[in-house]
Amino acid sequence: MRAVISVSDPSPGGTSLERRHVLDVAKCLAGLAGHHQLVVTYDGDPYIRLLTDLQWRVGRRPASDLPRLDVIAADQQAEAGYLLARELHNELGGQVAAILTQVRVDPLDEAFRRPGTEIGPVCDEAAAQELAASGWLMERSEGGWRRSVATPTPLAVVEAGTIELLLDAGVVVVCAAGGIPVVADFDGSLRAVPALSSQEAAAAVLAEQIHADRLVFLTVDPDFPEIAQRSLRTVERSDVLADLGDYGPPAARRAACDFVERTGRQASIGPLWDGRSVLDGDAGLLVVPDGGRPVTG
Fold this sequence. Notes:
Elements: E1 2-8, H1 22-30, E2 37-42, H2 45-57, H3 69-92, E3 96-98, E4 102-105, E5 117-123, H4 125-133, E6 138-141, E7 144-149, E8 154-157, H5 160-168, E9 172-176, E10 180-184, E11 190-192, H6 199-209, E12 214-219, E13 232-236, H7 237-242, H8 250-263, E14 266-271, H9 275-279, E15 284-288
């Protein structure tokens, strides 16, 4: 089985997945690698927001002196990917690769007209005017002003072909599903845009691109509902969209449904500590096509 495993951590602070829980994640996922081709993705957005906060606060540097958002995203991918790949290597004894990913988006995506994802610290009006003069979109937020960026819909992961080659060679691939949002110019060259990308939606797109048999969302959330920890609930796609608010974050449910609708395959949502059962379809939430007839093989 070829599977995309998307790991998320809702804990506050932003770096908890990459540091505090990385060993737990690696131990769980290593147990899944023996009989599966695995792509392991992680959420970079919280860490990106922490980095932008720190970059601004250190010395109150002007926006023109700060690294671009795509460079910050690349730094985050490198650090988190290294830590997770290292621990997976230690558990598996090798055959693990961490790669940087770019996510192609539509330059005409409606999200660019209505940015609404806040990043960075809250600042006063004077600082907001300075940042706006440097090209940042600043919007009123609770307690002051914050930078606002777009979250366009991911169309494709640029490195999907490379990931498939690695999988065929028996390599476990680690990458940030959200990647670095880019647009393709008329000549085919890629250009970064100041935006963020939903890791759940990008994981679903990547799973479709590499023809994954299963898309799995695992969370390290200790408050994941007890009803879902050791039991299986199989639900058709249309019913997931209508209800089941206790089974993982809304973005994961939506991405799971999108993958099932586009491919006719299955998607799962569950807790990290029961990852094997979730992947095998024995625990958590198993989303199947309407009519309950998944495509296999």
